[in-house]
Structures are given as structure tokens and as C-alpha cells.
UniProtKB/TrEMBL annotation:
Pfam families: DUF7344. The chain crosses the membrane at residues 135-152, 158-182. Residues 1-22 are annotated as: Disordered. This is Transcriptional regulator, ArsR family. It comes from the Archaea. Signal peptide: none annotated. InterPro entries: DUF7344, WH-like_DNA-bd_sf. Residues 31-109 form the DUF7344 domain. The keyword Transmembrane helix applies.
Amino acid sequence: MSSIDTSLPDEIASSVSDSEADDGLSKDVIFELLKNRRRREVLAYLLEAEETVTLGELAEQIAAWENDTDVNALSSDQRKRVYVALYQTHLPKMDDAGIVEYDQDRGLISLADNADLLMMYLDTDNHKQDRWDRWYAGLSVVGAAFVGAAVLEVPPLTVAPTLGVTSAVVFAFLLLSIVHVVTNRRREQSVDGKLSRID
């Protein structure tokens, strides 16, 4: 039986051992782990699953993605090729770096503490995109409708002065802007916290 080297390159391995002491990862380790598509797919699958998964189900899903087919349509060779690569190479590397918790004997995999350091580099559907443009556009349409109705004296806006309606729309934009700023500050603090763990 041939032996496959599952270790990280020497310069990367030393970065992992150095960074384990301060609970972080170096950029070299992060990019070494992310450069392989299968490891990125492992992260995407675990992020979506949000629980411990078996090696079998993980290998099947990655094989299905790679072959652009359904899990039920996979051949045994397609399954085996991905299973062996995950078992012997990818999952041990990710476990050594603290990205996943991999119980090789039981075939169980889950996200570990350092996984969030890699997630910010991935474009996954689970990460909510910044869609503030939709909020501002929606408020613009609603505000324009209210101001227009006030100018045209459409009931029930005839009781409110046009200046009052316009002021209310401006105030709504002010509130939305404050919420936007607070949300962005929190996101920046979260990212800064993660970046502080990267050497």
C-alpha cells in the first residue's frame, strides 16, 4: 500500500504550529488551504449543513458537484475518487490547521474554531450580501409617492402639510442611514476581530 503525504508544506506547517499558540492562522496557511477547490467545497458544504456530517455524505455531494450531476446518478468510481482524496489528504490538512474537526476513525466532520477565518474569503450563499441599495431604493419610491400625493393633495394626505410629509421622508432616510452605519461598524468590528487572528 502506498503512503500519501498529508502534511502541509514545511513553511506552511511551521506557520500552523506558530499560529496555534496565539489562536490564529497565517495568510500563507489560509491561502494554502483555500487554493484547492475540494477544500473550498468542504467548507461550503459544512457551512450549509451547520452540523456534523459523515465522510460518505460529504464525498458524495462534492463528487456530485464536480461531475455536475445528482448524488443518485454518481458511479462508484466518482464517489471513491473524492472519498479517498478527502480521507487521505484534504480533511487531515484541514484538521491540522484547526479548520475542521475530523474524526478519521468514525468518519465524522464538523467545522472547528478557525473555520470563520476562511469563511470571509469564500463567496457563499449563506453569507448575506450587502443589499442596502434595495432599502434606499424602496424608501425613495415610497417617499416620492408620499410627497407626490401630498403635493397633489390626495386624501388622506390633504390633512398633512407638504412640508411635514417631506420632513417625515427625510427623517426616514436619516434613520435608515443610522441603521446602515451601525450595521457596517459591527461588520467591520467582526472582520477586524477575525483579521487580528491572522498573522
